[in-house]
Design goal:
This protein is 41% helix and 16% strand. The model has no long low-confidence stretch (mean pLDDT 95). The strands form four sheets. Strands 3-2-1-4-5-6-11 form a seven-stranded parallel β-sheet, sandwiched between helices. It is an alpha/beta fold. It is built from eleven helices and 13 strands. Strand 1, helix 1 and strand 2 form a beta-alpha-beta unit.
Amino acid sequence: MKVFVTGSAGFIGFHLAHRLLARGHEVLGFDGMTPYYDVELKRARLDILKNADHYAHVEALLEEKHVLLETVVQFGPEVIIHLAAQAGVRYSLDHPDVYIASNLVGSHNLLEAARLSCPRHLLIASTSSVYGGNEEMPFSECDKTDFPVSLYAATKKAGEAMSHAYSHLFKIPTTCFRFFTVYGPWGRPDMALFKFVERIIRGSDPIEVYGEGKMCRDFTYIDDLVHGIELLIDCVPEEGKPVAGSETSDSLSPVAPWRVVNIAGGQPTNLMDFIHTIEQQLGIEAGKIFLPLQKGDVPNTSADSGLLRALTGFQPETPVEIGVKAFVDWYLEYASER
């Protein structure tokens, strides 16, 4: 296939593009290389992709509409996978304009590109953050998502809504998938695992443990996430044709070839247990500062993964012990080369 991937130098985009290339697909990556975190890490990921056959790259922002539209239309992708976004709940507290530009304006430009190029399937990254103030768990795709508690979550919810409108109006088969705390090698430096490992190894500063260490997260290993996305590529939504035998309600729209799918294992891990796993892998006990829950954060996440199983037969199952070890091994090698 010809696959267009936005955010291809990002954590998830890199792993997905790498997997697609290994399967023999032609991939055109699109990434603005924004400085939200270390651009050298993004360059290192991109260098690996550029060494692969059948990979090409365009460096531009989603907000550069003419570049995006021209790139997509000329490439003529069969599948578009939209991963590029301004990430981070906490960063959105101080930099709201960046989220509006990337996640709203940029995503609208991507939808326009899909309207013009007519892919057989458009897949869009969303987030568990859209569940916001919901207290009933596990989170199901058919739960209301009307109460976001961060601007980041609000922009991702808006992205889902915009994609539904485009799917209805222009009959673009669309799947939005909601990530749950993705981690693994080549991960983002702003995320907890990267920060914890870096600080514990340096030994100079204690790690900051928010929510007084009482939070739970449905951690999802990167290989599981990418495999889930890969399988969903062939699960093209068809209006009026919900998945048969689903053990959970299908989120398929009644008026569009559109659905949303959780990708997670549904096995939440307590934050302190996660930290203990890191300490075991490093053989070092971390100094800790316990802090209250930050604005925009939620205390717990847990996914109902029944729809993913019904569509693909797959459910993420990598234990955190294996995932954390893989990250630590990668980090030690990457840090030694810097």
